[in-house]
Amino acid sequence: MRVGLNLLYLIPGVVGGTETYAVSLLRAIARVDSRNEYFAFVPREAAKLDLPTAPNFTRVVCNLRASRRPARYAWEQAVLPLQLLSRRVDLLHSLAYVGPLIAGCPHVVTIHDVNFAALRDSMPAGRRRWLRLMVGGVARTARHVIAVSEFSRSEILKHLGATPERVSVVHEAVETAVPADEPSWEDLAAAHGVRKPYVLAFSSRSAHKNLPRLIESFAAAGASLPHLLVLVGHLPPDASIRAAIHRLGLGNRVVVTGYVPSAHVRPLLRHADLFVSPSLYEGFGLSVLEAQAERVAVACSRVGSLPEVAGEGAVYFDPRSADDMGAVVRRALLDAGLREKLVCQGLENLTRFSWDEAARQTVAIYESQAPY
Asked: Could you read off the pLDDT of 200-216 as tens digits, one per residue?
């Protein structure tokens, strides 16, 4: 079988979790499947993306820039089906939300979440309507939909009109190999201005990451504690986060790293006393598994997919209550025994997730939907 992989959305270092999903899944497929042939269609930005070099994988660099979103959508609908035809592709897998409405072959799509429908205030109305049109259209026309959690599957069925028998859950996982270029703690601390002890959270431009409430909770929870709060990643484009840090007098206790190279993320996690995920909505929540893999205690919100993914390896709080969040964070920081217990339970929780198993399940879906 000849499988097309639609990665036209993928801007390395920008698209976040969907890049991790694509790269990790394709590496695992290369490990478990040498029978089928794969064609990865990528934009110019991803011409050097770290894709499998196995003999049955071919990279097809398309003459478009994914950053020019209207052009990318047009290419996906008008040009990609012709590329699939010319390469005699039997099945297409679009790995992030959208793909051609008429692919010319059976089409599988991964829909990671439906936050544009569930969190109506999280993005501009025009973009929300466009995503509902495109993602909803693909959900209804694709031969099969992959959801990354039971929670996401329920959201897809609720908001997008897909029929239950056409939506399967394939959980993500966490990479276990240690990057060869991982920095020392001394270099890491100097590069990002951090010191121990600290609490770590991932920041994002998305409002549903709930950073203002995290900062408010940290101001109360950490008042008598020596910990820094380290926010890894980009902040939202407005100035609200920095304004909150200034208003609460946390200028010396909150470190915002900005963009961090992938080789720095795991050691930054590893040296934290606690990882906090305050998100209002997650389709999977890979970051909690990444923290558990680095033997870090986890505190996270009890909404979305997070309880499903973190399991017993986390303590939970109401993400809409700064008081509850702060109390749970403070309890975890003051109780070393609790953190040690969470680390052990987190390691046990990780055994439920495997990229190789995700790859086998994904290939089985391809083969079940193939036209022969």
From this structure: 999 887 778 899 999 99
